[in-house]
Every structure is written in C-alpha cells, then in structure tokens.
Amino acid sequence: MPIFRVEHSSHYHYPGEVGLNYGEARLLPRDTPGQTVLDRRLELNPRVDDLHQRDDPWGNRVAWFCLRQPHRELTVTAVSRIARRPPGGSPGEPVAWESVADTLAGPAPTEPERQGDWLAARECRLASPLVPLIPRARDYVSSSFPPDRPLDEALADLCARIQADYRYQPYATGIDTPISEVLEKRHGVCQDFAHLALAGLRGLGLAARYVSGYLETTPPEGQPRLEGADASHAWIAVWHPDGRWLDFDPTNGSPTGEGHLTLAWGRDYADVAPLKGVIVGGASHRLEVGVTVTREA
C-alpha cells in the first residue's frame, strides 16, 4: 500500500495592514474507502488567536481560525500523510445508466442502512450554486449515454471525450467562469471540466458530486505525468445503486488511480474551497500557492 506525503501551502500578501482575519480551511484530507489518513495537521503563521475543527455536513474536516493581531502576511500550510489502496476489486454487475437514474427518481429504499446514502445521492442530482442544469451541458454529456449503456462504460467515454474536446489551460478561467463559457471556448482547468460533467450528468437524472484532492507530483517510472499535478485537483464521483461512488477524472480522461488523493467533496467547488474568509483592512491581496505530493513508500 503506497504512502504519500502532501504539503499544501497558501501564502497571502496584503498591501495594507490587516487588523482582523476570519478564515475557514478545508485542507485536511478525509478517510475514504480507498484511502486512510495517517496524519494531518494545519500550521498557521502568524500564530492565530483561535483555531477550531469539526466536520461539515458532507463529512469534510473544516478548520476555523481567527487572527486579531495586525499583520501583512499569512501562511496556511497543511501537511498530511495518506495510505492509498490501489484501485481494484470486483466492479460488480454492469448496470444501465437509466436504471440508476430511475432508482434515484423512485421511492426511498426500505432498508434503514441504505436510506442515508440514497438521500445524500438525491441532493447531488440537483442544481447547485456553480452548477446550473443547462441544456447544452446535458446535450453534450448525453452523447456518451445511449440507451442501456452500462454506467461505468458511459462515464469512461464521457471523460475521454472531455479530455479530447477541451484544452487544459491554466489561468484561462476563474472560479466564477460559467459552464456556458467553458462550452463555448473549449478550454479551462480541472474545476471547469468537473463542473461541465456534473451539469450534464445531473441533467440526465444521475447523482454526481465534486471531489477535490491532489495528484502525485512525480509518478512512478514509466507512467505519464497527469495534468493538474502542480496544484489542488478536482474530479467527479457518480453514485451507483450498490452504494459505491465511481470516481472519474475528466481532465485526464480516465478513472482515478492510486495517485489521486481525496481531500473533500460536495456539490461543487463552492462547497470545498480550500480557503475562504473575511478580513478587515489589507485592501486587495496577492496569493501564492504551492502543492507537493511525494510518494514515501
């Protein structure tokens, strides 16, 4: 089982003095069926006055902090060690994608142990702040979903098409770039391709969530370096009736592998933004972000 060390550092530079800084960080990875978090810690400089942690409604670890001393810089660094189980195991019986959509549209399961998962999946069928259900996205995605096609096969085809049809271009878009613009200009970054896929999949009645995480910076010898390995990454996960979520990476056109490390998930980027908050003073700011993912064993 490979073990990875992840270091994610965010350095804020303020042109003016900040007198009060309230922040919220989603930088501490979570356990998943495919990974175990061995250690995780958050380091802040200057030292903050208050720091509290708890899980959000999606089960992501969130840290809230408050810095009341005047400052012109702030560095937030998350350091984690993660054991990753290689993808594998039985994929289960193929299930047509329409059957999955019908299950989500129908009545809740009668078994109590399945109801919570089904309800969580139902929420991921709906539009969200950054993922409106626009017909153009549904039409684009639907080409990969002809009648009776198995869900996993359709998802693989969709992600391969997104990689082929859209150019990965850092800094070409922003957090608020609408999906309609991505469809028009045919370029973007991982969050854009994830949002595009989510909009179309939800438009077909499937449950799909946004996953934030990391990619191995330098892959093992003989394996290609993946797009998006120099920063935090994003991909999608789609609900399967057996309770699994199938993870696929539209940016790299494939299912996720052992070099994909999950940080958090939600409806879209807004649910899992690494850092957000409110400051008093400081005017505009400059942000430098560095991410390094190293395979230790």
Describe the secondary structure blueprint for this structure.
Layout lengths: L2 E26 L6 E11 L4 E6 L5 E7 L3 E14 L12 H9 L6 H12 L11 H8 L8 H15 L1 E2 L10 H7 L1 E2 L1 H14 L4 E8 L17 E7 L5 E5 L4 E2 L4 E7 L2 H4 L2 E7 L4 E10 L2
Parallel strand pairs: 6-7
Antiparallel strand pairs: 1-4, 1-5, 1-13, 1-14, 2-5, 3-4, 8-9, 8-12, 9-10, 10-11
Helix pairs in contact: 3-6
Report on this structure.
- The structure is a single chain.
- With 297 residues, the chain is α+β, with helices and mostly antiparallel strands.
- The chain has two domains: 106 residues, Immunoglobulin-like (Sandwich), CATH 2.60.40.2250; 176 residues, C8orf32 fold (Roll), CATH 3.10.620.
- Helix content is 23%, strand content 38%.
- It has seven helices and 14 strands.
- The strands form three sheets. Strands 1, 2, 3, 4, 5, 13 and 14 form a seven-stranded antiparallel β-sheet that branches.
- A hairpin with a 4-residue loop joins strand 10 and strand 11.
- Helix 3 packs across helix 6.
- The longest helix is centred in the middle third of the chain and has 15 residues.
- The radius of gyration is 20 Å and the shape is globular.
Concise description?
With 297 residues, this protein is α+β, with helices and mostly antiparallel strands. 23% of the residues lie in helices and 38% in strands. It has seven helices and 14 strands.
Tell me the strand percentage band.
35-45%
Q: Major β-sheet, in short?
A: 7 strands, antiparallel
In total, how many beta strands?
14
Termini distance?
8 Å
Low-confidence stretches: none
The CATH top-level class label of the largest domain? Alpha Beta
Please name the CATH architecture of the largest domain. Answer: Roll
The helix/strand class is alpha+beta
Shape: globular
Mean pLDDT across residues = 92
**Domains (count):** 2
User: Number of helical segments?
Assistant: 7
In sequence order, what are the helices and strands, one letter per element? EEEEEHHHHEHEHEEEEEHEE
Write down the Rg: 20 Å
